[in-house]
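Quick board copy: two proteins, each given as sequence then tokens.
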Amino acid sequence: MRDNFDFTNQDYKERVVNSNVRFSLSENGKITKIHANGDCKNVSKEIEHVLSGLLYKVDITQIKDNMIVSSYVMPVSITIANR
């Protein structure tokens, strides 16, 4: 995610930004229905943009049946530095 994050946005302030990202997995393992909520609205939108553009897919055959849920939550911390 770090490699695709746009750190050049002038609205970002130098600090650590914490967000919770809620998402679902499609039947083919693609990350969908991404919603980030955190300390900075602009950073949350960028997290959503980056995750929705990833070509990464989860190998759902490795997930046990009792682990399949409708949505997942993942904490994300972004460090904005060197302004």
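And the next:
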Amino acid sequence: MQRSRPVKTVETAPAYRTFLGELLSFGFVGVVGTLIMVFGANLMRAWLGGSPITSVVIPTVVSTLASYLLNRFWVFRHRDSDGSGRELAVFFALNGVGLLIQVLCTGFTYYTLGLHGGVGFNAGLLAGVAFGAGFRYWSYKKWVFTPSAA
């Protein structure tokens, strides 16, 4: 009787490398979404005369759709999706919270601090983006793109 040889196993990447790659990919998607949102907000505010709140909300919705597609099909592609629409609904609900964070920061700088210029608008906008991004990353991993059931 012949002895069988041990099967070689494929090594998986260490957890820190997986986390780092996921975080960098998420960051890239965030940069793309931020560029869509910042350019859109400034375009609406400067050329179309939109209010600071409307100028944040509309481009953020467009950015959210782009972010969902990039996150689902690139960053978190290795995580399960049940295809029921629950993931999409939770994603947009959590982005609603992120949007609220952005609106609060922009509204605070504009209405409370009275910073009506472009620098003040963008400072509030970017502060909101930073706080919102932290919330989004944590919440996506926890509730949207859950680990695959192995």
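Board note added afterward: The chain has four helices and no strands.
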